[in-house]
Design goal:
Blueprint lengths: L1 H8 L9 H36 L25 H5 L8
């Protein structure tokens, strides 16, 4: 049992990679992410341009502004009923 535990406790020797190989792998990954980001940006720009180009008004501004949207009336700051009917005070 001790021999088996000793074998498990002693890890096998690991090979380390050369610094050049690690650096090249990191630079390759950085180039890949940069190209992916640029490709996504270009695809979004092309999609936006295409959507603008095929719309009926072709991106021209509206001839007149849209009508204002209706809003609910606001309440007065001090409602008149608050001063007319004060709350009764509790009796001790």
């Amino acid at each position: 049992m001790r021999e088996r535990l000793a074998e498990l406790a002693d890890p096998p020797p690991m090979r380390t990679r050369e610094a050049r190989a690690v650096r090249l792998a990191g630079e390759r990954a950085a180039r890949r992410w940069t190209r992916a980001a640029l490709g996504l940006t270009a695809a979004l720009a092309a999609g936006t341009w295409l959507a603008t180009a095929i719309t009926p008004d072709a991106g021209e501004p509206a001839s007149e502004p849209p009508p204002p949207t209706p809003t609910a009336p606001t309440a007065p700051p001090n409602p008149p009923h608050a001063e007319q009917h004060p709350l009764p005070r509790p009796t001790p």
